[in-house]
Amino acid sequence: MERWVPLFPVSASAHADAVDHLYFFLILVSGFFTALIFVSILAFSIRYRRSRHPVPRAAPKSIGLELFWTAIPFMITLVMFVWGLKVYMDGETPPHGAQDIYVVGKQWMWKVQHPEGRREMNELHVPVNTPIKLTLTSQDVIHSFYLPVFRMKQDAIPGQYRTLWFQANRTGSYHLFCAEYCGTNHSKMIGQVVVMDEHDYDAWLSGVDNARPVESGAKLFVEYDCVSCHGTGQRVRCPTLGGLFGTYVKLQDGSSVVFDEQYIRESILYPEAKIVAGFPLAMSTFKGQLNEEQIIDLIAYIKSLSPASTSAEKRQ
Questions:
Q1: pLDDT digits 0-9 by tens, 218-240
Q2: Considering the entire predicted model, what is its pTM?
Q3: Which domain holds residue 32?
Q4: How many domains does the structure of the chain reveal?
């Protein structure tokens, strides 16, 4: 039995170390000034306590002293700001080529979808030393995907896609929590992240033969007759989608918007919200017909489309 209680969870990613170093710096600075203030109060209370001595005259003002105690705190807070901004931006900007994994939160579980087709419930298997980008949403209320060992946390919000990325640098099984109160069984919305060697992860992925999100999305694209309007036939009444992902599309009001996951989801559920320039509103809503997992599959399929897979119509 261990005779000590760890004050912090283990550090299982490079970002965790960066967060810890910033946190220790903030504690050190706060502790130093807290001690300095209280020691000064005690010393001045004794040195200048009320006595029979006459009240001394006010000391002359010192511009240099005032500049000193203004500049030093400013420089310290500036260091905190720049350091904190770097740690924040590093945690918010996934590297190019990071592995995409979709996560849907619902009362009271986490549903995970790997691009290779493997699905999980309250578990997330990832390879070690590989950047992982999670795209999160919620099917009902606000949840919060919290990984203490990676020092990462991101809210899963209904109707929105939020991203979180990490790169685990040590294998093992680690706790996964929902850090936002989400109802009666909130405390039971827990799971684990399993970090595996590359070889073990590949073997785990091949253990179940599930349809990949791209394949499921392709079936939905045909099943819901999306291909009739967004395809290449004579009935085309909407923009073709090949190669659009990540680009800007021009809207009827003259503005532009990034063709990303959020825009695709909004167009599926609320097609009247942002209409592409040059096309009339011909699409009906699929709200209530598709769940979040099906929308994710459709997004995966649309992302996979290349310009060659559609007609050469001009992008709007």
A1: 888 888 877 777 766 555 567 77
A2: 0.75
A3: 14-42+63-92
A4: 3
